[in-house]
Amino acid sequence: ESPLSSAEESVNGLPGDPLAPQSSGAKPPSEEPSGGESQPGTPLPLPGPHSALSIQEMVAMSPELDTYVITKKVKEVLTDNNLGQRLFGESILGLTQGSVSDLLARPKPWHKLSLKGREPFVRMQLWLQDPHSVEKLMDMKRLEKKAYMKRRLSSLSDAHSVDVGGAMGPDFLQGSQSPGGGPQQQQQQHHHHHHQQQHLKKPRVVLGPEEKEALKRAYQQKPYPSPKTIEELASQLNLKTSTVINWFHNYRSRIRRELFIEEIQAAGGARPGSEGGSPSLRGSKSGEGDSCDGTESDGTVEAARQGFGPGQEDQRGTDHDMEAESEAGASGSSPARIECSTPGSSCGPAGMGLFSLTEASSSSGSGPSNNIPPSGPARNPRDNTLRKKKAANLNNIIHRLEKAASKEDPSEWEF
DNA sequence: TAAGAGTCAATAGG
DNA sequence: CCTATTGACTCTTA
Fold first, then answer.
1. Does residue A343 approach strand C to less than 7 Å at its CB?
2. pLDDT digits (tens, 9 = 90+) for A104-152
């Protein structure tokens, strides 16, 4: 299926896919990167007169954008106009609904994004700047609906026979994205299984709360478990080794992201004016001892050693053991951060300009609200929101130290 | 090679 | 329908 479309910007029409991978040479029309740009009244970036630059070029020269403000605005516009993430994602960003949801809910700060990661934000910014953004999307929505209706009708009138007994067999379309129209690229798992039409999907492993808890506990002990530990965890929990490995990759990544968020909130303060304070963020469900707070709690940090689910024993101490437990108490803030990834950029330790206050926001109708809080004055003392994360972060530091310790040359220490 | 960054896509709730 | 979560996968990086 591919009726969808994408009306995307020009950009290369290579046989590849619409969303522009690279651009080697020259863009036909246009030029003029011009350093200067926006005049003081204009909100932001690139209003280049009107050039059809490829997005990547724009990403490359884009000034720092405030991802938090951008996502906030996008969410507002979408909800105000009843536009869904799916539509928005597929037609404007070239991403699927789940990715959009994630991006809008937890945007990483600009300086921690790779070039590729910045792309969606630049697209969002561009979209926000387009005066007709909403109408265009709404038009697409209409078109989709029309197509949908059409399809429904035809199938109804049709007497196709799909054998048997009146079951509605799942129809498989299985085609996933159309290469041509939709953006995207990255087809995941090729279904290279020829035959075997019988739906053998691959169940999508769903870890039980108990397994997650055990994994989280293990993470607190050792964010970077050795292969041996991984094997043990896998066998004890009855999971595939790869599942455990993936879990750790994902968990580390996601924990890291939450730290960024907390950092942002703490730094910028949230004081739009009225607004009762940031909504607090996720309340993590119930269940697990969970790391994220859950209403009060804790105090002493976990460590929880207790049998793994089904009752088992643990075995840690593999490797050299390290014991770390802490609770960095400082209320203050700056969790130690290590890693400033991405080459260039700065690692801004706490303090400063996490975001520029650009943003002029062109109104757009509704919205009360929004806008970025005054940058910040101070840090919010006493914010209790995280806790174990910091502890985990410390373990992280320890891990890196151990790693660094193996190197001779201090210059290679990446701290 | 392992870790990290980005995403996808199945799925669980509304 | 729509949104949020999350295991797994592809590409980069170092």
1. yes
2. 999 999 999 999 999 999 999 999 999 999 999 999 999 999 988 888 8
Which residues from 86-105 of A have any strand B atom under 7 Å from their CB?
94-99, 102-103
Q: Looking at residue A143, what DSSP letter applies?
A: H
Give the pLDDT score at A54: 86
Nucleic strand B within 7 A of Cβ A117: yes
Q: Cβ of residue A411 near strand C, that is under 7 Å?
A: no
Find all residues with CB under 8 Å of A58, minimum gap 6, and list them: A45, A46, A122, A126
**Could you tell me which of A224, A216, A218, A214 has the C-alpha nearest to residue A398?**
A224
Give me the helix-helix angle, A115-129 and A133-157, nearest 10°.
Answer: 100
Q: Is the CB of A107 under 7 A from strand B?
A: no
Chain A 201..230 CB hits on strand C (< 7 A): 204-207, 212
Which bases of chain C are contacted by protein, using any atom under 7 A from a CB?
Answer: 1-14
Taking the CA atoms of residue A81, residue A84, residue A89 and residue A93 in that order, the dihedral angle to the nearest 10 degrees is: 10
Of residues A190 and A87, more confidence is placed in A87
Give the global pTM.
Answer: 0.62
CA distance A298 to A301: 6
| pLDDT tens digits along A243-256 | 999 999 999 999 99
